[in-house]
Amino acid sequence: MRFWFKEMHQAHLVKETTVEDYEKKNRTKKVFDAIETACRELDLATPVWLEANINEFKRHGTVRFNQDNFVETIDFDFLELSVLE
């Protein structure tokens, strides 16, 4: 699976990274591992999943993490995670 992470601020792409995971493990484990990897690369704290995020991700394969998902203050509008394949 490939995941695309985009850090957005005022409708502009600030930073991005792509994480690939082709190991044999379940989808949930791949998603959480990809988030950890991307946050390390983007120098961000790991966001907290809320019920709304889970539902959005299940329906669309995309989720946005905003200030409500981070313990620290963020200097962007949201971090978007999209599944590419």
Q: What does it look like?
A:
This protein is of the alpha+beta class and 85 residues long. It has 2 helices and 4 strands. A 4-stranded antiparallel sheet has the order 2-1-4-3. The radius of gyration is 12 Å and the shape is globular. The N and C termini lie close together (6 Å). The model has no long low-confidence stretch (mean pLDDT 95).
Write the layout of secondary structure elements.
Blueprint: E1 2-9, E2 12-20, H1 27-42, H2 51-60, E3 62-65, E4 78-83
Antiparallel strand pairs: 1-2, 1-4, 3-4
Strand order of the largest sheet: 2-1-4-3
Mean pLDDT: 95
Q: Secondary-structure element order, as H and E?
A: EEHHEE
Total helical segments: 2
Structural class: alpha+beta
- Label the overall shape: globular
Largest sheet, in brief, is: 4 strands, antiparallel
